[in-house]
Write a structure and sequence with these properties.
The structure is a homodimer of 335-residue chains. With 335 residues, chain A is an alpha/beta fold. The first copy, chain A, is built from 13 helices and 12 strands. Chain A has 3 domains: 53 residues, lambda repressor-like DNA-binding domains (434 Repressor (Amino-terminal Domain), Orthogonal Bundle); 129 residues, Response regulator (Rossmann fold, 3-Layer(aba) Sandwich), CATH 3.40.50.2300; 128 residues, Rossmann fold (3-Layer(aba) Sandwich), CATH 3.40.50. In chain A, the strands form 2 sheets. Chain A has a 6-stranded parallel β-sheet, covered by helices on one side. The first copy, chain A, is elongated. At the A-B interface, helix 4, helix 6, strand 2, helix 7 and helix 12 of A face helix 4, helix 5, helix 6, strand 2 and helix 7 of B. Strand 2 of chain A pairs antiparallel with strand 2 of chain B. The structure holds a DNA duplex (16 and 16 nucleotides). Chains A, B: It comes from Kribbella jejuensis. Chains A, B: One of its GO terms (molecular function) is transcription cis-regulatory region binding. Chains A, B: Keywords: DNA-binding, Transcription, Transcription regulation.
DNA sequence: TTGTACGCGTTATCAT
DNA sequence: ATGATAACGCGTACAA
């Protein structure tokens, strides 16, 4: 026993009557150790409750067995959206059976980008997953160029080097949603789009615009910022400008919930007067009245895949492609 | 430069023309270093982009500068509730200015408790925050007895040793909510309680029962599991058993949203026919129709305080008391 | 004030 | 198959 209470390799070796090296081999599953020796060592490990010292190991292997999940967003919007928790859940699920631990790097207050970059460059983690929504400054570009395995949760805006990323097909998802509104007979279809400094905002708007154009219908757009407040403002503007609209495609469930409320308060029935389609299929979608018809993104799966790719990159594989996953229309009561 | 690309103390020393030890002193802010020397060293550090190797440092200091946030819940309910993200945000906020990193320990699949305990005992982190909702098995008891600074996010059920914990006054919060229903003239007040293996479930029910008893009114209770589905089932049962109820106190916003929907579908108007009060003040509360009146818990603050206490314990302070924070009634449209 | 020298617990190389 | 032994990068008595 050393001072800190944890037994060391040395002590296990002494108890098992072998050398440090042999114990190390057993711990790391080396094939060339006599079964008898293995048994003796394992017995000693059990008896002492030995746990390898990660710091010592990291020092020599130059691997930390930990990966970072980075949220380089100074504002707390990320947290109010259930999206983030689902992502985390997915990442964690594929990391669980590996030795890798999840280190959370958040930028809660004013952006101290240099600190973040220093940390990532300092060899404290083996790789990083970037959950970023905005193309803020050029932090994404700097992250992309780090000499460290990195994957992005969405095609990072304004980055001109090839990166690995995982995302849903936002354009196609939006198309599905708008087409559904068309298919149930709506013609005066407006959209509440997300901010244009996020790929999700841009692409979902594009999908809406494409379908409307193909149908020969005029586009009606208001912008929100993916928050309930933003959704509310946008919905009010829309009703003001186009009181006769009969369909509404909203770029996120969080904003859609607010829109539903605004519609209801304006005396409109959903879906009878105005049919509403959201985007995400978050927990929120089933808490509204009526339940929200929405475009589901498989967020947990994205997170899971993100982790898989990162692990592969850490293992040395090249990977600089954008993986795109399909969305799925979930029809409930609002459209 | 060594193989990994990061410069070492040695290289900084060479460039600055001093010894390793002196550089180390500068890095760690030792007071007795000549200003000139400090300047020279800092210049060298900057020039080389030196970052201390955390593994090497941890090896000798026996501190890891990282704390764990542990969610020993095998099911994913934690993630569907915005509560968790807010907690994380609070913890992260007070950790940000410190050197400590946040390590996330989740138990996504079947509980591998021993693995978790081994990890925590292995000196990989300096301390841990336990976010636990259930009194599952005796994992909490085992955690509480670990030779490691630990704080709990709520008074842990079934633990008979003194522990440090932070929570809101759930009894008082529930009382406030129910009293509000009384104050607006409701007399047939039911509750949707949480599960009785969580302190939040028990205490909020207690608060409800106390107030009802004091008012000489009969209690009407249905149980949910803090999910929307559970809330829906409970609401249906309640309406079935007590079709004439005019007030409803729901132990969580997530369940309350479902209850609102059930009430609406049953043809009842909220708050005209039935007034509803939730608990949490999560993002959900403003997404419903009508907006939810609810008992706010300062979740970010709890997380923040949790981190503060943990840091203090790591620094050597004793701390085994339960800190209780106040809730606040947020009156919106549902009651 | 600064430098020397040792030890932290592990892996990896090289003998045996 | 196993055992010495040398790194890994850093902090810190102890010396100077």
């Amino acid at each position: 026993m050393n001072g800190s209470g944890s037994p060391t390799l040395e002590e296990v070796a002494a108890l098992a009557g072998v050398s440090r090296a042999t114990v190390s081999r057993v711990v790391n599953g080396s094939p060339k150790v006599l079964p008898d020796t293995v048994a003796a060592v394992e017995q000693a490990i059990l008896q002492l409750g030995y746990v390898p010292n990660r710091a010592a190991r990291a020092l020599v292997t130059r691997r930390t067995d930990s990966v970072a999940i980075v949220v380089p967003e100074p504002d707390s919007r990320v947290f109010s959206d259930p999206f983030f928790a689902r992502m985390l859940s997915g990442v964690s699920r594929t990391l669980a059976p590996t030795p890798s631990q999840l280190v959370l790097l958040l930028e809660p207050a004013e952006a101290d980008d240099q600190r973040l970059l220093r940390y990532l460059r300092g060899g404290h983690v083996d790789g990083a997953i970037i959950i970023s929504h905005h193309g803020r400054d050029n932090i994404l570009q700097e992250l992309a160029q780090l000499p460290l395995p990195i994957v992005f949760s969405a095609r990072p805006l304004g980055v001109d080097v090839p990166v690995a990323s995982v995302d849903v097909d936002n354009v196609a998802g939006a198309r599905t949603g708008v087409q559904h509104l068309l298919s149930i007979g709506r013609r005066k279809i407006a959209t509440i789009a997300g901010p244009l400094d996020m790929t999700a905002g841009i692409d979902r708007l594009t999908g809406y615009q494409e379908v409307m154009k193909e149908a020969g219908l005029p586009a009606m757009v208001a912008y929100g910022d993916f928050t309930p407040d933003g959704g509310e403002q946008a919905a009010l503007r829309l009703l003001d400008d186009h009181p006769d609209l009969d369909g509404l495609f909203v770029a996120s469930d969080l904003m859609a919930t607010a829109a539903l409320r605004v519609l209801s308060q304006s005396g409109r029935r959903v879906p009878a007067d105005v049919a509403v389609v959201g985007f995400d299929d978050s927990v929120l979608a089933t808490t509204t009245t009526p339940k929200l018809t929405t475009v589901r993104q498989p967020v947990e799966q994205l997170g899971s895949r993100l982790a898989e790719i990162l692990l592969a990159k850490i293992a040395g594989e090249e990977h600089t492609t954008a993986e795109i996953y399909d969305t799925e229309l979930v029809i409930r009561d609002s459209a």
